[in-house]
Write a structure and sequence with these properties.
CATH class of the largest domain: Alpha Beta
CATH topology of the largest domain: 2-enoyl-CoA Hydratase, Chain A, domain 1
Strand content: 15-25%
Length: 271
């Protein structure tokens, strides 16, 4: 079954974010191809609303985040919208970008950023908030904010070092240079590469189908621990893992999974 809704709840005549459901899969599309899907404040608000809504819907086992148009995932923040801002309102836009990233990370289901084309500035930051980045051979990545007298504002200084290491992140942020798919894969930024958009979307769907065959509660707990533990000291991160392991023992899925293993049968998870 397929259904869709505008992320802004129908308030905008031409919503920039579309959220569609295909049974257990959700597809979130940023649909501003004329501006290379740039992240204005209104687009960020629609993204926040869309992911908040998905968090309340039953049966979401995975999400694809894509950009429309074929030239860019997201080419960056909407610079025209930022140009006239004073420091206070600019900080509010940054806080909105961080809330969007936090909403994606809080969703129990994994989210795959499907990058086909540019993922620059805010676009790369949005992709970094997802669980995985899959990309086509035509993709390019970068944090070029310093070229505009700015710094990353939607989490780039936080999540990029976690993804590729501090030294590489500093180099990309300080120089503002772009990298192609070869370097992005080698650096560990991109989990899987694909020849074109069709192969990208098929591969992402295949991954989420494999995820959906597992325990939803276990995947959700694992994501919670991974997000919370990353960057923490070892003792704090270990304590979070123990807490998650304990929580798994409270679920019906844990009992079903262990019983099925001992009985040598396929588990029937509650979902």
């Amino acid at each position: 079954m397929t259904m869709s809704h505008a992320a802004a709840g129908g308030l905008a005549e031409d919503p920039a974010v579309r959220v569609e459901r295909e049974d257990e899969l959700a597809i979130v599309t940023i649909d501003r191809p004329a501006s290379l899907n740039a992240l204005s404040a209104s687009v960020l608000t629609e993204l926040e609303t869309g992911f908040e809504r998905l968090a309340t819907e039953r049966g979401v086992r995975g999400v694809l985040l894509v950009g429309a148009g074929g030239r860019a995932f997201v080419a960056g923040a909407d610079i025209r919208g930022l140009a006239g801002l004073e420091p206070g309102p600019a900080a509010e836009v940054a806080r909105l970008g961080h809330r969007v990233a936090g909403t994606i990370e809080a969703l129990p289901a994994p989210v795959i950023a499907c990058v086909d084309g540019f993922a620059l500035g805010g676009g790369l930051e949005l992709a970094l908030a997802c669980d995985l980045i899959y990309a086509t051979d035509a993709s390019g990545f970068g944090q070029p904010e310093v070229k505009l007298g700015l710094i990353p504002g939607f989490g780039g200084t936080v999540r990029l070092p976690r993804a590729i290491g501090l030294a590489r992140a500093k180099e990309l942020i300080y120089t503002g240079r772009r990298i192609g798919i070869d370097e992005a894969v080698e650096a560990g930024l991109v989990a899987r590469r694909f020849a074109d958009r069709d192969a990208l979307l098929a591969g992402a769907r295949e991954t989420l189908a494999q995820v959906a065959a597992n325990s939803a509660s276990a995947v959700g707990i694992a994501k919670r621990v991974l997000v919370a533990a990353t960057g923490r000291p070892t003792d704090e991160a270990s304590a979070l893992e123990v807490e998650g392991f304990e929580d798994a023992f409270r679920t019906d899925d844990m009992r079903e999974g262990v019983t099925a293993f001992l009985e040598k049968r396929v588990p029937r998870f509650a979902g």
